[in-house]
Each structure stands twice: as structure tokens, then as C-alpha cells.
Amino acid sequence: MHGLGIGQVRRFIGRHIGVLKIHSLVVCLYIILAMGMSWPILANVGSSVVGVGGDPWQTMWRFESKYAALAKAFDDKHVADFVKQEFLGGGEARLVNISVWPWMWAYQLFGMPAAYNFIWLLGFVLSGYAMFLFVHYLAAGRIHGKEVWLQLAPAFLTGVFYMFLPFRVAHAQGHFGAMQTQWLPFILLVFVALYRKFSWWKLFLLWLLFTIQAWSEHHYALWLGVMALVYALLERQRLRVFIAQKRHALAGGVLAVLLLVSVGLAYVPTLRLSALGDSLELGQEQTIRFSADLFSFVVPAPLHSLWGSTFNRLFAHYFTGNAAEATQFLGWVPALLILFFRAHIPRRQRRVWFVIGIVFFVITLGPRLHVFGRVLPWPMPYALIDNWPLFSAVRAVARAGVVVCLAAAILLFWVLKKNIHRGASAVLFGFLLLLEFSFMPSALQSAALSPVYSYLRPDSGSAVIEIPAATNYTAASRALYAGLRSGKRVIGNIALERAGVADDGELVKSVPAIRQLLYLRTTDLRRDRSEFFAQSLPESLPDALAFLDVGEIIVHTDSLTPLQLSAIRGFLEEDVGMSAIEVDDALFYAVPQVFSRPHDFVFLMRDSRWTGVSLDQKRGHVYGEIEHRAAITLVNVSERTQPMRIKLTLAPESPGGLKIWRSGQEIGEIRPGGVGVYPVAALPGKTVIDFERVGQSKAVIQDPQLLYGQ
């Protein structure tokens, strides 16, 4: 008996060693293919980051900032509070993005940018291997006989198809969550295994994988739920029998509770934010813009190595949205094989995956049909659910195309399994597939920060102005990442909106001179046009910088046009009197303690209730309108009270009159055509003046002025 037991163990190990060798070789082949397609990364893994635009910088910022927050929580012994806020729905209402947490171990091992590049490459390998495992298991495949690789070729080639899908490659240029398509086949694999033979460890693994998917890309989790609903409708009789068993029903309840904790609670802040107003209601216009075009599934990707530039013109001129969202190409050869050999697919598999593919094909088209960029007037089925909860917050409906890709991969596997009988046919299909999906060399951008950041001083203010961080997303994201080194906030950084942290955008839009600089109002800067209330921009800038605690200004010359650069330099150097230091591709301005040009330490901001503020070129007047109520704020950056006056003229054609209030007391009233001058003692800090319309219609103010002295 003892000898028999040893023999059984040896045979068991021998069988599994053989399988392990095969799977190891499959993974190695996927690694070789992934590295071959992305070969520039290998030589620049520690100095460059793969991808384009600002999204890779955003992701690197998120890794480092969240890791630093976790380390601080450990140091302060507030780990429980951190976990509650980050994962269990605590803290303020905010957009949640926790896609980096499943990969935080890679950041700890390699640092940035090596960790990002490693995850990028590993995502390709895992996508291919996950699909290989799923379809091989779906077909109940067993490896036997001598022609092992010929038996595995259909599953292996299906993995190649899935890992190099243009949909995935396009999102891999920067969409960190959307490029992680590997979890979907893993989830399906565990689900099928659980369905065939129930066990609690499989249920736990299914929960873990779905949680990772929901954290990585919540859109995919939503579409996975919709796919499960479609599958349940198609297979309702089988599922009814499965759920009839008490253990299976109990397992479903346990899974629901686990997902409520790991996924539901993590997204409570997002749901809370949506309940505060319409901040997550993106509107049908944006939903239509980021829907797929009818022909996007057959138009080759713009990233293709050989003919990508040709089709890029088509994407740029006809397809809506950005190239990543518009790329849905499934490949001509795979699509034709599926269509012509669909009869070779097992009936049940054909029914399930064709229906799922068609349903999600229709979903990706969005609420209106696009045909080569032309939006047709009649509604699509998605318009019926566009305003439903959760669906109303979906920005890029085209990402539902991931399920179309998934269904196409499974259908392709069955076609290949039935038709690949020789090694030559497998090699030929693999060659055609790699030719259609080739995207090498991968786009890289330097991960090195400009040396201009070394000029920032920690004692010179808590904030920095970076131009064009308010208008250029790439520059803004790079500035956000650089802020981790300097510890200074970047005024008006547009990347803060996607980063999910509070920004000062509304405040910046009301500060004179700062607004013109950040939003590149070159006409205002070059012509020295006065701000509202006749405020001089050069005179207002020193006080505005002091108010925002700005110590330095950085101008990224490589991100500006010659006209923009000329206007900014002329304003800062000639009008304001600041000195520039040229550092590679940037200009550095240190804010002086004392400016050479005189200023009165007071500037004025208007609130968001003002309407129609503009300069009428023909009439030569500046106008501002008050529909009901509005206010201005006098900001005094000095330590003593400043004597000021506001001069108000109500336009003769103004339909309504105007009352002026300060601290709840009325200080004046003006009728149409009237003029009023009101002394205001501007105390250190902020002094608010309120306006109220008199009459049934708006009050129109003409050429208001802020004057120094009383």
C-alpha cells in the first residue's frame, strides 16, 4: 500500500509538472509577443512612461499620493480612519478612483515610472493568458496525444487576439483602468468553474476578481452586470435549476453581501455626490460624443504601425470623441471567419455570445446613431436607459465595446477550434492577426520633470502658477505630479477635476490678472485692457499673487504658441516688471517681496451671479447685468484699512434699478441713467458689497469703477 501510494503521488506530480511546463511556455510566448510589440519600453523602462497625454502622469500621481497617504496613516496610527475613508464610503462626497490599489505592490517594488511600464506590459500578458485559460476550460479541453501545440493553438491564438485588440491598445495609451481588460476572462473562468462544480473557495475568488474589476474600471463592472442579466435571461431555465439548491442560493446571498462591502461601500461617495445635484449628469450631448460610430468596428485603428496614419485622418475628421473611445476595430480576418464559419460554433455558444455581442454592439452606439461622424436624428435603444441611475453617469458609452470584443474572442475560438488542423494554418492566422493588430513601436514620453522645478523654494509661498496648466491637460497633469516633489499647489490646475480633489477653479476665474494669465487671454494681456470695474491688470497682479500666496510663476514654453508666449512675457516682464530665468523648456519667475511698480493692495472680485459682463466694442462701454442679486468682494492684502470708492452708473436703457448693501445695511439706490459714488473702507481681508435689482427686470451696470481714496 505504501509503495502504491508513492507511485500515485509520483504520477500525480508528473502529470501536473507537464501541464505546468505547457502553461509556463504559453505565458513566456505571450511575454515575448508583448515585449516585441512594445520594444521601445525595454530600453527606457526607468526613464520614460508609455502612453501619450496627461493620463499617465495622472496615474503616477495617484500611485504616489495614495501611497504617501497610506504611509502617513500608519505613522499617525489612523489606519482605520484611512480605510474607512478610502474603501468604506467615509469622508466627503467625491468621485472615487481606486484603480491603483490592486497594483500598489508594483509601485512599492519598482517605483515610478518603472512600475507603470511593468503594469502596462503585464496587462497584455495577463489579458492573453486569461482568455487562453477561459476558452480552453470552456471547451473542457484536455491535452492528450503528441500534437499538443496544435490542440492548444486555437486557445493560444484567441489569447493573442484578445491581448492585442485595438480597443485595448488604444486605451493603453493612458486610460489606466480601461486598459485592464484581463479581469473579465478571469471572472468568466471562475464563474463557469463555479457553475460546473460549486465550492466556497471559487465563490471567494469570484468575489475577489469582481472587486478588483470594479476598483480598476467601474464601467466594466457595470457592463459585466448587464452581461450577466442578458445571460440570465438566455439561460433562465438552467439557472433556475442551479439556484433551486439551497447551498447555491445561500452562496448568492453571501456573494451579494461581500460585494456590497467591497464595491458598494467604496462607491458611496460617488453616489452621495450624484445626490447633491447634477454634477454627474453628463447630458446626452456628451454621451453622444463618446459613443461608437457604426463603422468603427471595421475601420482599422489609427495606432497601426503601417497604415495607422492613413486611418488617423478618418478618426480626426469624421469620428466623434477622442481616438481611444472611437477605436473598436475587431479585425477583418477574425470578423470574416466568425461570419462565414458561424455554423461551426456549437449551437448554445453561438446563441449566447452572438446575442451578447449584438446587445452590446447596440449599446456602444449610444443614444443616437453615428455614421462616419454624422449623428442621425432618430433615437437608439440606449436612449431609453440613458437617464437611469448609474447609466446617467456613464461618460464613455463606447467602452461597452469591451464586451463586444469579449464575445468576438469566444466566437473566434470556436471557429479556430473547428478549422485549425495543421500547424501551417495556425501560423498563417497568427501572422495575419499580428499584421492587422500591429502597433509597434509604442508611444513613449519622458518621465523626467523639467529642471525648472528645482528653482522652487519651500519658504516662498504655498502655491505656484504654471502656464498653461489651466488649459492644457498634459501640462496640468505633469504639474500635478511635480507638486508631489515641491509640496505646492498649482493654481487653477484643470487636472484636479479628474484627480478627484478639491480645486480653486471658481475662485481663480474671479481674480483679475490671474484669470487672464491662466486662461491665456492674449488680447487682454497685449492691449492692457482693463478688468471689470476698470481695474488695471499690471496693478492688480501683485495683490492677486499675495492673496493666493503664490511664490513663483512657471511658463512652459514648449506648450505655448509664439503669440501666447510673447503676450505672457510682455505682460510679466514689461508691464509688471518681473525678471525671467530661462531653464531649458521653461521660464521661471520668482515673485518679489516688493514690486517696482506701484499698487494699492486692493483688488475686486465678482461672484458667479453676474451675467453679461463684456466690452461692447461698438459703443465703447463695459457692461454687467444683475438678474436678481449679485455681489463683489474687495480683497485687501495689506494689514491696514484702505480707503476705496466704487463708482456705479446704471445704463439709461437698464430695465431695472439697483440697491447697494454692505453688511446687511443699504448704502444706496440708483435708478436707470443714474450715477452713484460710494466710499468703502476696505478692511484687511475681504469686504463684501451686495447688489439687488429693483423692479421686474434686470439691472444693467455701465462702466463701473473701483477707485482708490475717499
**Tally of contiguous helical segments:** 28
User: Which sequence of strands runs across the widest sheet?
Assistant: 6-5-7-9-8
Could you describe the largest sheet, including whether it forms a barrel?
Answer: 5 strands, mixed
Tell me the span between the first and last alpha carbons: 110 Å
**Silhouette:** elongated
Low-confidence stretches: none
- Which whole number gives the mean pLDDT? 87
Count of separate structural domains: 3
Proportion in β-strands: 15-25%
**Strand-pairing-aware structural class:** alpha+beta
Please give the radius of gyration in angstroms.
31 Å
Helicity level, as a percent range?
A: 40-55%
Number of strands: 20
The oligomerization state is: single chain
Structure description:
With 710 residues, the protein is an alpha+beta fold. Helix 6 (114-138) packs across helix 7, helix 10 packs across helix 11 (218-234) and helix 18 (332-340) packs across helix 20.
Short description:
The chain folds into three domains: 436 residues, no CATH class; 140 residues; 107 residues, Galactose-binding domain-like (Jelly Rolls). Helices cover 49% and strands 16% of the residues. The chain has 28 helices and 20 strands.
Question: In terms of topology, how is this protein built?
Answer:
Blueprint lengths: L1 H36 L2 H4 L4 E3 L4 H21 L3 H9 L16 H7 L3 H25 L9 H16 L2 H6 L11 H14 L3 H17 L1 H17 L1 H9 L1 H19 L3 H9 L6 H7 L18 H10 L5 H4 L5 H9 L6 H18 L3 E4 L2 E6 L21 H19 L3 H15 L6 E3 L16 E5 L5 H14 L2 E2 L4 H5 L5 H4 L5 H5 L3 H6 L9 H11 L2 E7 L5 H14 L4 E4 L2 E5 L11 E5 L3 E7 L4 E6 L2 E8 L5 E8 L7 E6 L2 E6 L4 E8 L2 E10 L4 E4 L2 E4 L2
Parallel strand pairs: 5-6, 5-7
Antiparallel strand pairs: 1-4, 2-3, 7-9, 8-9, 10-13, 11-12, 12-19, 13-18, 14-17, 14-20, 15-16, 15-18
Helix pairs in contact: 1-6, 3-4, 3-22, 5-6, 6-7, 6-9, 7-20, 7-21, 9-10, 10-11, 10-13, 11-19, 18-20, 19-20
